[in-house]
Amino acid sequence: MSGLRIQDLSILLPRGGDRTHALAGISLAVAPGEILCVVGESGSGKSVTASAVMGLLAPGLAVERGSITLGQDNLLALTPAQWRATRGARIAMVFQEPMTALNPLMTVGGQLSEMWIVHRGLSKREALARALAALEEVQLPDPAGALNAFPHELSGGQRQRVMIAMALALEPELLICDEPTTALDVTTQAQVLKLIKDLQQRHNTAVLFITHDFGVVAEIADRVAVMQLGHVVEEGPVGEVLLRPQHPYTQALLAAVPPLNAPPTRPLPDTGAVLELVGLTKTYASRGIFRRRKAVKALDGVTATLKRGTTLGIVGESGSGKSTLARCVVGLMGLDGGTIRIAGQPLTQDRQKAAHLAQMVFQDPYASLNPRRSVGAQVAQGPIAAGTSSAEAWAEARRLFALVGLEPEAVRRYPHEFSGGQRQRIGIARALAMKPEVLVADEPVSALDVSVQAQVLKLLRDLQGRLGLSILFITHDLRVAAQLCDEVVVMQNGRIAEAGPVAEVFTNPRHAYTQSLLAAVPGRSVLEAG
Amino acid sequence: MRALKAFFRSPPAIIGLLLVLAVVAMGLAAPLLYPNDPLGLAGRPLQWPGANPRFPLGTDPSGRDIAAQLFHGARISLLIGFVATSIAVVIGIGIGAVAGFYGGAADTVLMRLTEAFQTLPNFLLLLVLVAVFGSTMEVVTVAIGLVSWPPVARLTRAEFLSLRTREFVYAARIQGLPDWHLIFREVLPNALPPVIVYASVVMAVAILLESSLAFLQLSDPNVPSWGNLIGLGRSVLRTEWYVSAIPGVAILLAILGVSLLGQGLNDALNPRLAPR
What is the ipTM of this complex? Predict the structure, then answer.
């Protein structure tokens, strides 16, 4: 029997948690040359599975029963010395964040050649030759130059290619990928997924691929295992599970994936512009006497209009300038040129007045609330500063909590008592408390599980219908944009590549960049066909 | 709550807490056990501990009761430690917060000032201050506070630098809240735990600085501090070593207590070290 076999594996959590087992008797198998995707939301136990196979369980976690075998060997019985010989040589891993997985003080060639020097005892020269060949295999643009480069000199996608080269250096039997493309842009993600699939077939490697994204599953998996709260609830060939899911949890997860086809254009209220952006420019210049870096144009003549009561989506990859745009609109950042007018008024320096013009919902639900103050105080503080009486502001906070679907009495509680989705609702309530003309949402659902994401998107749509909100919606996720936005602006390197009604732009993209973005959205062929 | 539990699970932290409580108890008990002036003449000078049941810890070269000075000295050491630390923490947080929150020119000016203070050895600076302004209790305490703030300022600045770009601070800024609110309500509460922990180090050093001054007979001679007692014993160190050794042990235990308490607080307040 070759490949990886996990049988009836149970892993205990430390006492005092919300459940007793991280894994409750799961059985999985990956054959050589096969890709098994383990998919689930946060807390499902998918990452614990990966670390158990690597023998890297976090302190406090203990195997209760079950077995993990690779080929003929029982991995749970290995000594530390045997583990060192196994990791890297027989089991390799690619992590989510390549920047933190690479040593910033060693060159790429140095780190890569260590694999052969340590495990195979090759000389430095031979190892470097192997490293060069490996970098060529992962299709880095300049393999010889990359050998001498430091990790920070490479882009995210290039770093992940280096990680893959390192993982596959010793031809391991098993490759574990833990969300390897989550931190990458869609076009880079598509390339990296294709690379993993190609190399895996060439080397006949068994791959255990951990992800939360059904689009990625559709692109890469041979078989899928869906996990929920430490159980495998459904397992089968990718076509079966994605198109004919049997378990209700799988069905719910798949239903929550926002379809890329935009709903038919709703009649837009003819109300005129609430937010006008005219010729915005912003350059990040190098400062300092000793170092000159190339100036980066984050915004380069951006002009756009948000109509009252509608949603304007700003989509683009990292570095496109979309977050800079959001920060300029709420006044966190100054402009170099151009004007922003909200409800006919130019943006003011007066913080109190600006607060009623634009408010922001942030990306990270854990960083956007002060952990040491009650959530109600954080919602009420804005109106109080603007002159509302304390009692009135707290009553308003309770009303807003009810509006965003939270218990009104939860205002007294502290952020750590809420889940990620609930925190995002609090963030929305905080923004609405100022009754802003424009609500700027900067990737508000990117950090959320797909089912929670669907709920927050639904909330934003409901609120827009009820309160007539005007929303500037920043996102990298075209699926999300398709569901929420009326109009969309595609940005590339600080410029607008294409703009128009979302249904038109997404079904009939004219700009080459928009076309490549749409083509790179993972899982189109499977998820959109059905 | 979680931090409190973690604190009481660590034996060194509990030992530290008990030592500090013991010193506090000594200070509180001093006027009850020794209602007379501890600096008053009590008996024949230089009686060894245990030689005379009236003086369980013996008498010093001037014939004063060492036990009485030890108990009253606990109050002085705690008072100096506490007041000097408060002065250092208030100055340090003020300067560090402004430098870290505003950055730019304010940061440059304030940090150069801090470095200027730090490059002077703080004991030398303390000697200068005491030499110029005299050696009363008040001057000594304020002077110790004045030489101890730079590390607090640097620590506070570092915390502010990383916290001021958090999204919740941006959110409050967008809500139209003024700078003082951002500094005191949003950033400072989150920056405080490491500063409080460091304050325990400042306190230990403050007690030690006062003793060093007293050993050189530059501290206020009219108060019964532990350092003064050590200074008195200096001349008879070879023959009646207990005069210096007894308050020396007291200082050692007090500083050990404060340090362990600080370390325990650090472990308890640092979420990364909390048991998972």
Answer: 0.82
Say if CB A314 and CB A326 are below 8 A apart. Answer: yes
Put simply, whether B170 touches A (Cβ < 8 Å) is yes
Determine, for residues B276 and A372 on separate chains, whether the beta-carbon distance falls below 8 Å.
Answer: no
Per-residue pLDDT for A425 more than 90?
yes
Beta bridge partners of B108: none
Residues with Cβ < 8 Å from A287, sequence gap 6 or more?
none
Which residues are A473's β-sheet partners?
A313, A441
Spatial contact of A412 and A374, defined as CB atoms under 8 Å apart:
yes
- What does pTM read for this prediction? 0.84
Query: What is the enclosing helix (H) or strand (E) of A36?
Result: strand A35-39
Query: Any chain B CB within 8 A of the CB of A423?
Result: no
Range of the domain at A459: 273-286+293-528
What residues does each domain of chain B span?
Answer: 12-25+66-273
Q: Which two tokens stand for residue A431?
A: 């923004």
Pick from A370, A371, A385: CB nearest B176:
A385
Per-residue three-class SS string for A80-136: HHHHHHHECCCEEEECCCHHHHCCCCCCHHHHHHHHHHHHHCCCHHHHHHHHHHHHH
Give pLDDT, residue B163.
92
Residue B214 CA from chain centroid, whole number: 16
pLDDT tens digits, residue range B77-110? 889 999 999 999 999 999 999 999 998 899 999 9
pLDDT over threshold 70, residue A27: yes
Structure tokens at A498: 């294409």
The answer, for B1 touching chain A at a CB cutoff of 8 Å, is no
For residues A328 and A250, state if they share a domain: no
Three-class secondary structure assignment of A397-429: HHHHHHHCCCCHHHHHCCHHHCCHHHHHHHHHH
A92 phi and psi, to 5 degrees?
A: -125, 160
Is A407 contained in some domain?
A: yes
Task: Check residue B275 and give its pLDDT.
Answer: 44
Contacts of B185 (CB under 8 A, 6+ apart): A373, A381, B172, B177
| CB within 8 Å of chain B, chain A residues 355-414 | 355-356, 358-360, 362-364, 367-373, 378, 381-382, 385-386
Q: Is B171 within 8 Å of A364 when comparing Cβ atoms?
A: no
Beta bridge partners of A65: A10
Distance CA B46, CA A206 (A): 84
Residue B274's pLDDT band, with cuts at 50, 70 and 90, is very low
Same domain, A127 and A98: yes
Claim to verify: residue A195 and residue A340 sit in the same structural domain = no
Q: Report which residue type is found at A489.
A: V
Taking CA atoms, what residue in B is nearest to A383? Answer: B175
CATH number of residue A119's parent domain:
3.40.50.300
3-state secondary structure of B193: helix
3-state secondary structure of A246: coil
Segment A78-103 mean pLDDT: 87
pLDDT in tens, A40-72: 888 888 888 998 999 888 888 888 899 999 988
Which of B168, B175, B177 is facing A367, going by the closest CB pair? Answer: B168
pLDDT for res A457: 92
Tell whether B167 is within 8 A of chain A (Cβ): yes
A160 falls within a domain: yes
Q: Degrees (nearest 5) of the Cα angle A147, A148, A154?
A: 80
In angstroms, what CA-CA distances link A85 with A38, A91, A172, A522?
Answer: 26, 10, 11, 36
Query: How distant is the Cα of B276 from the closest Cα of chain A, in angstroms?
Result: 7
The rounded distance, in Å, linking the Cα atoms of A320 and A491 is: 6
- Name the nearest CA neighbour of A282 among A298, A294, A268: A298
Q: Which CATH class is domain B12-25+66-273?
A: mainly alpha
Question: Per the structure block, which two tokens stand in for B75?
Answer: 């109050």
Residue A356 forms part of a structural domain? yes
Percent of chain B with pLDDT over 70: 97
Using CB atoms, pick whichever of A14, A364, A381 lies closest to residue B172.
A381
